[in-house]
Structures are given as structure tokens and as C-alpha cells.
UniProtKB/TrEMBL annotation:
SUPFAM superfamilies: Thioesterase/thiol ester dehydrase-isomerase. Belongs to the thioesterase PaaI family. InterPro entries: HotDog_dom_sf, PAAI_dom, Thioestr_dom. It comes from the Bacteria. The keyword tRNA processing does not apply. This is Thioesterase. The lineage of its organism: Bacteria, Pseudomonadati, Bacteroidota, Flavobacteriia, Flavobacteriales. Pfam families: 4HBT. GO terms for molecular function: 1,4-dihydroxy-2-naphthoyl-CoA thioesterase activity. Gene3D superfamilies: Hotdog Thioesterase. Keywords: Hydrolase.
Amino acid sequence: MQLNREQVLLRANEVCKNTLMETLDIEIVDFGPDFVLGKMPVTPKVHQPDGVLHGGATAALAETLGSFAAEILMDLDKVFVRGIEISANHLKSVRTGYVYAKASYLHKGRTTQLLEIRVTDDHDNLVSLCKLTTIALPKSK
């Protein structure tokens, strides 16, 4: 059964219920053959004590989008995907609005994948540049 765009987005967001993604209000909003796009509101819930977006929340957003992108490539009946390394360079502070994360591939291997995740603000300014390495491991029978 082929799912349409709305069904895929609905399912992607449904699996986030009762997880960190729901806690941070992360939403998957678009995808294509080589990217996944999501957003997260910048509210006091994701602030550092001085009122700016916490880098850990940004990294959680980046890993979420990168992991979804890696899973789009894989046959999830045969493998499961896990993040094995993430790096984040935080370049700009954000106090309000939304941040958007766009994950795209740098390498699409059968076992390992390398993704770049660009996090931007409401004005398309680069907030963080992240890289995520994922691994696809066989499911036990």
C-alpha cells in the first residue's frame, strides 16, 4: 500500500507521542527523496536560564530529523536505525519563534549514513549546523 504525503507525515508525528519529541513539540512538516524538514517552537521550555534556545534542544531536534531521514532510506522490516554520533556548531541565538531543521544526506550507505542538518530561524538565518552519523543494524529474527 502506497501512503500519500499527508499519511506519511501523520504517521511520523504519531510515533512521537509520549517521547522527547512530543515534550519538545517537534513536528515533522515535510519530506522528499533526499530531505526531511521539521520545526520546534522556541519557548521557555527549551531555553537556557538566560532566555535563549538551549543547544541540547537544538541537538535533539537535529538528531530527530536526521534519524527520520535515515529511516526513509532503510527497509525497517529488516533493520533498525540508531544515531551513533552527532556534532553541532551553534552559530546564532534564538529567543522566540520557531527553529526549522532540514536533514539531508552527505552519504547514503547500506550500513552507515551521514546527514547534515541545517537549523534555521524564522528569517532563514543559520542557527546551528549539525552532522549526524547513523547505523542500520539487522533486526533479530
